[in-house]
Amino acid sequence: MQTAISYFTGLTDPRVERTKAHLLEDIIFLTIAAVICGAETWNDIEDYGKAKEPWLRQYLKLPNGIPCHDTFNRFFSALDPDEFERAFLSWIKDISELTDGDVVSIDGKTICGSRDGDSKRAIHIVSAWSKANQLSLGQIKVDEKSNEITAIPKLLEVLALHGCIVTIDAMGCQREIAAKIREKGADYILAVKGNQGCLEEDVKLTVRLTKPESEWVEDSFGHGRIEQRKCTLYNNLSSVGNAEAWKDLHAVVKIEATRYFKSNGKEEKETRLYITSSKKNAEVIGKAVRSHWGIENNLHWQLDVSFNEDDSRKRAGYAAQNFSMLNRIALNMIKHEQSKKRSVRGKRLDAGWNDDYLLKILTNKSMTG
Question: Who contacts 34 (Cβ-Cβ below 8 Å, separation ≥6)?
Fold first, then answer.
């Protein structure tokens, strides 16, 4: 049976030879199947395995039955997360096709439950999300004594981004990050706030004193409100000090959002500023900025709400980081099974109840390269 899981069965087994009572490929398959079906803890995975043992034996050897929860815990606590990430990237590279102009959003997420008192801070992971493919493209853990600024370049290094537009919030508005994105053959759109010396003031001055190059306005209606978004581009960079330090900087971007709430007649206004290397028009840039929030809605929100990732209490070794990867593998596979028009949570329930539907998720051709 050809499945996406085959990309992960060649991982280096972290166990010593005398403790290998269960096959690595059995552990990987059983764990991913269980997570797809709603498992959130090592005990859940063991219970799922015992409940589904006759079905699992159609595809797995299980020479010593179903592994116990401690086996799953020890295995994934010791598994090299960098090698796991490389296998994930190999899988994503084979199944995704990043087309010219695809928006890749990069953002960080903290797994709150991984905090261990005062001795260990919660694990923070930086992820990349493809709008066109609706896929988590990769992740990297932020070092405990570091931050996203050092993690983002490491993630960019392993991603195939040629022709894409990379969007990052203000934390990633760094010259080195802009240069790395251009080095990868992509364009950047970076949010501007007060973390880069005089850049924010220079950008505000550009907006105030120079003539716009182009504008685009979009209106939307729904959820009891009327919203208008306006994207304005400014190509005159004479007011941006040391503009050449930002690799291939082409324009300043102003996004103005106005929301009118029908229920109470209130109006809200918000203005956000960005810099970009892209030479696309205001409509493309405006839509790219808006799509950045897809990583929050389609990845982070799903991991927290559908997978309860924030409530995870896994703290031993690499357990939290590796389980986060398992969640992303499961989410990618679930979102790309399109025969049922249900939510991610609904599909997980269906997979747990219906072995044939689980098999459809596991063997989806779009997930096997």
Answer: 44, 45, 48, 49
What confidence tens digit (pLDDT) does each residue in 9-64 have?
A: 999 999 998 889 999 999 999 999 999 999 999 999 999 999 999 999 999 999 99
Residue type, 119: S
**What are the distances in angstroms from CA 345 to CA 326, 330, 367?**
16, 12, 19
Eight-class DSSP state of 114: G
* String of DSSP letters for 18-36: GG--S-HHHHHHHHHHHHH
Residue 1: strand, helix, or coil: coil
CA-only gyration radius of the chain, Å: 23
Distances (CA, A) of 271 to 12, 172, 226, 294, 298: 49, 19, 17, 19, 24
Spans of the chain below 50 pLDDT? none
pLDDT tens digits, residue range 314-340?
Answer: 767 899 889 999 999 999 999 999 899
